[in-house]
Amino acid sequence: MSKTELVTAETETILLQPISPPAPIASIPRRSSGPDLPAPFPEPSVHDAESALPPESAVSTAQRWNDPPRNKYRVLSCFFAFLVYGMNDGAPGAMVPLFEKYYHLPHSIVSLMFLSPMVGCVLASFTSNRLHAIAGRRGVALTATGAYVLAYLGISQHPPFPVVVCLLVLTGFGSGLMNGSWNSWFGGLVQGSTLLGFLHGFWGAGATLSPILISRIATKVENWWIFYCLMMSLACLACIAVTTSFWDDTGSGFRQRNATPSPNAQAGTLKVLKNRVTLTFSLFMVLYVGSEVTIGGWLLTFMMNVRNGSPTASSLATSGFWIGLTAGRFGLGWITGYVGEKVMVTIYLLSAIGLELGVWFGKEFAVSAVMAALVGVSIGMLMPSGIRVMTKLLPPEKHLVSVGFATAFAVSGSAVFPFAVGALAEAYGVEVLQPVALALFGLQLVLWLFISRGKFKV
């Protein structure tokens, strides 16, 4: 810059010195749409396992199991409801020999008791979000447990078998609603992986208790429907507990939290069918629940017919499987959360495949019983881990509809695969249980490896 003369009124000449360029100053880069100012840190456009994890300095705003205080009652009531839910799922396997004897039916027909709940589960997967928008978790709790009460009331009257099959649709509907609502709620809490392990641990405890109770009732009383009278009483208690604990969780509150403008949330439910995360995890959970309930449902018959065990010993072996599953969920929840679901689920599935081979080729009754119990331990955390990873990958506003759909739809796996084993057992014998279980575990492993390496756009 050249010098410039400035002449004042008194004709005094002042020389202005050139101004040197300003020193560069630090500035915070800002986002710009111009091509020459790219964003300094590209923002991730996908929700994957790494980008979903918060930074170390982040402060969680999620609720805890004991904060606010009413959550303590909610957690305990859900634990009790899942205990009843587990007893519901653990009953069909123990009832198979009793129904065959009482109704004089073959394996293939009795297997319909595994298939009919699928209708209710699928219905629940498409109505859960709408019901939440209308009545909140209070309405869901009342509807889910109320469906159990009605079903058990009907079955306790020991009606014709086709009526039993139809009533079991109601249990599937209740199970689907409970899975969707409470899995998503627990998954969003602080330490969700551990809490989900406990929640499903109570389910396992109920599934453990059912074969023992049914065996005792069949031996001492000889009237299998007494079990369903007991179940009706427990379902009534669960209905009171969960409905009152979520009494202030109404439909209007749900719509405000999830920005749902109207009670019609069906479009949101249908939208999840285009979500890769939801569809992939739905398939994984269908395979898992199918393997779990198939083993638990047909293990008693397998141990009696193939391993030549007595009814009491075979019932104890079945309970051993559910005890192992329960122990895995209570004992491995913290370890899974600490090490990471990605690694631990892979280890669990590899262990399950090896142990299931031991059940198949261990010809002694005791060997098969011990291996079956260890299979239960190894698969206990699979579903809670899958739910927890879903809550990490998906934004909070999608938790209910996506997790709800995946878990409710997954319960259909507990219907399809046990029914298939029953149909195959009619033609080839109940020995088909082991290869079917191995195939399900293998498919889960392949799918989990894809999940743990893939990046999903949500």
TrEMBL record:
GO annotation, cellular component aspect: endomembrane system; membrane
InterPro entries the record matches: MFS, MFS_dom, MFS_trans_sf, MFS_Transporter
GO molecular function, a single term: transmembrane transporter activity
Keyword terms of this UniProt record: Membrane, Transmembrane, Transmembrane helix, Transport
PROSITE patterns cross-referenced by the UniProt entry: MFS (PS50850)
Region spans: Disordered: 20-53
UniProt name for this protein: Major facilitator superfamily (MFS) profile domain-containing protein
Organism: Trichoderma harzianum CBS 226.95
